[in-house]
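Today's session is about reading a structure prediction critically. Students often jump straight to the picture, but the first step is always the sequence itself: look for stretches that repeat, for charged clusters, for runs of hydrophobic residues. Only then move on to the predicted structure, which in these notes is written as discrete structure tokens rather than atom positions. Here is the chain we will use throughout the hour.
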Amino acid sequence: MKIVLINPPHTAIGSRIPDDHLPPLGLLSVGGPLIDDGHSVSLVDAEFGPMAMAEIVSRAVASHPDLVLIGHSGSTSAHPTARVIAEAVKRSNPEIRIVYGGVFPTYHWREVLAETEAFDILVRGEGEETMRRLADCLATARPLATIPGIAYRDGHGEIQATQPAQAIADLDAYRVGWELIDHANYSYWGGKRAVVMQFSRGCPHLCNYCGQRGFWTRWRHRSPELLPARSPGSIANRVSNSSILPTRTRPRRERPGWHSSKR
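Below is the predicted structure for this chain, in token form.
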């Protein structure tokens, strides 16, 4: 199948740094396994510019794809833009199936499908294995009800959701599709070349204000030995700055709360 991945322009106030862009790791993580399954995959990264709507649609439909997948790591603030893109692509070519994935559609799949018919299928939770199965299902015309982790409208227009997909046990079994981007176009921290790499997913805690546990479920990690081998070519030759952003999954020194100095 011909599959186009779209990274919508992030429109939240204060969320974008002019001229600095990080690779859309979520879409690249989905794209790698699809390429390995023999699908023709391309990426439209609309963060650059940001790209005008007409250009996004033009690039998305130029190759006459069978499937368009829209996703964004900041999916709540980007959702209105994702919806506009989906509706514009659908008007341009109603035959294209449009899939939507990310945190927002995972939690609000019923509302998203009810508010617009532009999205045909929503991926709930991690996308790598679910998208592999979904692409194969669509290519072979099998029933959508056989694919865990999705939501869709059935032949009667009723909104349906399949059983949740199991969390990926072996993260090393799925590679990132780094070949979908030109690393020279991505920079951060004042124009320095940058790339995003993910070592672990999930969280052992159950904070009621956070969606980590609901989306990623339990904490899992990649092999420390395999991670460098799966990096985008030679990191030393491609990246000029590195930062580690740890989660709260490891012990760290306790610090007094902000209120302690006020007493």
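Discussion point for the tutorial: The two ends are 64 Å apart (CA to CA).
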